[in-house]
Design a protein that fits this description.
Blueprint lengths: L1 H27 L9 H5 L15 E6 L7 H20 L3 E6 L26 H7 L2 E3 H8 L3 E2 L1 E6 L13 E4 L9 E2 L5 E2 L9 E2 L2 E7 L5 H8 L4 E5 L12 H9 L4 H15 L3 H4 L20 E8 L3 H4 L8 H14 L4 E6 L3 H10 L10 H21 L1 E5 L5 H13 L29
Parallel strand pairs: 1-2, 1-11, 2-3, 4-9, 5-10, 5-11, 12-13, 12-14
Antiparallel strand pairs: 6-10, 7-8
The protein binds guanosine-5'-triphosphate (GTP) and 2-acetamido-2-deoxy-beta-D-glucopyranose (NAG) (3 copies).
EC number: 2.4.1.221
Protein name: GDP-fucose protein O-fucosyltransferase 2
Pathway: Protein modification; protein glycosylation
Length: 445
């Protein structure tokens, strides 16, 4: 029943997403926000000693995203927020980004396992994130802050009037809330809300802000209009990328190194079932992302076809860019033949019925199917990462049209140094006429 409700925003966001990329690269790319310099990058927030400058106040930026958005769009919003924090740190205070705990994601449906208040450290390498921008987990924030209090929540929204006279301009203004506020006042006058499942968290003040533009348009507001220590931006996906696919985007993206235990599980699986090892496949990975600079085409990948086949809400909408299972299997077989690949690894969110049908059509496919214990350990998010990691190492990859899950795999392969020809392919709908293929976004180092 929630299916429709989820489908719509996801599609809209996906289209805004590609629109944004295009739009920003043309109109806003020249904005004054550049990549942070190296000293800044390596200074760790709370321990930082700023040698000459006057003492800077420690301030916290928290954020959350529209509930129906999935894991991979949230990873994209992290990039926007990291960019904002870099801008904030360039002048003024010592801002730290507080990582919003994972949980209550619509797609994480495995029941009977605890899937809220998951720290980022379960999915990503925190030390890697830290090299890019100072970040802390939410529980660390509570400890440092002296309690689960957030001084100010800014709920971001668009402008009620839309784009006046169809003209795009960047702007930000305090405005009355358009939608029903998802926060309510308790007896003590504090605001209560979802707060990632931390029931004891409360906010001292909640106001709405209409914002239209890239993430760093919030910098002057956070620096000048608001003086409190901790500020949370809710509906942070409202803000666009400062510079999509620019150096700063890629620095942050490259810093999002998956947790080691998930990578190791993926690597073991590759070796065991797909005859794939980094040495033979030329996919040597460095834990230190600042040293990963693989040349395009240097990675060969494992002797298997990697497939991301997004189903669920993508088929309920009867989208014409999504294939039938039969159509998808035909495509897989022809790619395996063309590229002489022995195996096919399939990552999919297909339901049980479709999974069975897929297995019937493609009996020799390989899937990562965690035991109950493994699922409890890695959770749905970790399993999705393992699937992505295995797809990222395939000799050839094919994904699903406008799936952020597939986009993140593209980026991972770009980091590993695959030839773009082996990465930017997607399934076409059975009756789709113009099947536009994914865009190659090159890393800016
Ligand atoms: N394990 C696994 N999970 C998947 C796969 N595809 C989708 N999912 C699950 O479905 C969720 C939704 O896909 P996401 O890509 O995260 O959602 P999104 O960010 O809105 O992205 P798209 O809807 O794909 O654009 C994922 O986070 C996973 O939990 C898959 O191939 N393998
Ligand atoms: C911030 O302060 C300036 C100057 O006082 C004011 O003009 C502007 O409207 C304020 N912006 C917001 C978003 O509150
Ligand atoms: C709440 O925040 C708004 C915007 O920063 C501010 O104008 C207002 O005075 C604050 N209210 C309280 C009670 O602090
Ligand atoms: C694994 O790959 C190697 C070289 O790529 C090949 O020689 C070997 O036969 C393969 N093993 C299996 C079990 O397919």
């Amino acid at each position: 029943m929630a299916h429709r409700a989820v489908h719509i925003p996801v599609v809209i966001i996906a289209s805004i997403y590609s629109f944004t990329a295009f739009f920003l690269s043309i109109f806003i790319a020249c904005a004054a926000f550049e990549t942070v310099n190296a000293d800044n990058v390596f200074s760790a927030s709370h321990t930082a000693t700023v040698p000459i400058a006057a003492a800077r106040d420690l301030r916290y930026l928290l954020y959350d995203v529209n509930p129906p958005e999935g894991f991979n769009l949230r990873r994209d919003v992290y990039i926007r927020m990291a960019s904002l924090v870099k801008t904030l740190r360039k002048e003024g205070d010592d801002w730290v980004l507080v990582l919003p705990p994972w949980g209550r994601l619509y797609h994480w449906q495995s029941s009977n396992i605890h899937q809220i208040r998951i720290p980022w450290g379960e999915f990503f390498s925190l030390t890697s994130l830290q090299v890019n921008v100072p970040v802390i987990e939410y529980e660390e924030f509570i400890a440092e802050n002296g309690g689960p209090f957030i001084d100010q929540v800014l709920v971001l929204q668009n402008y009620a009037e839309g784009w006046t006279d169809g003209k795009w301009e960047e702007k930000v203004d305090e405005r009355p809330c358009i939608d029903k506020l998802m926060y309510s006042k308790d007896k003590q006058g504090y605001y209560r809300g979802w707060f990632w499942g931390y029931e004891e968290t409360r906010a001292r003040n909640v106001t709405c802000i209409s914002a239209q533009g890239h993430a760093s348009i919030m910098a002057p507001v956070l620096q000048r209009n608001i003086t409190v220590t901790s500020v949370m931006l809710d509906r942070a996906e409202t803000l666009l990328h400062d510079h999509y696919a620019g150096k700063d985007y890629w620095d942050t993206r490259r810093s999002m190194v998956f947790s080691k235990h998930l990578r190791l599980i993926g690597d073991d699986f590759r070796a065991k079932y797909l005859n794939s090892t980094d040495d033979r496949d030329h996919t040597i990975y460095s834990e230190d992302w600042t040293r990963m600079k693989a040349k395009l085409g240097s990675a060969k990948g494992g002797p298997y076809l990697g497939v991301h086949l997004r189903r669920k809400d993508f088929i309920w909408g009867h989208r014409e860019d999504v294939p039938s299972l039969k159509g998808a299997v035909n495509k897989m077989r022809s790619l395996m033949k063309k590229y002489k690949l022995e195996n096919v690894f399939v990552a999919t969110d297909a339901d049980e019925e479709e999974s069975k049908e897929l297995r019937r059509l493609l009996p020799d496919m390989v899937r990562f199917e965690p035991s109950k214990e493994d699922l409890e350990l890695f959770k749905d998010g970790g399993v999705a990462i393992i699937d992505q990691w295995i797809c990222a190492h395939a000799g050839f990859f094919i994904g699903t049209s406008v799936s952020t899950f597939s986009f993140r795999i593209h980026e991972e392969r770009e980091i590993l140094g695959f030839d773009p020809k082996a990465t930017y392919t997607r399934f076409c709908g059975d009756t789709e006429k113009e099947c536009e293929q994914p865009t190659h976004w090159k890393i800016v180092y």
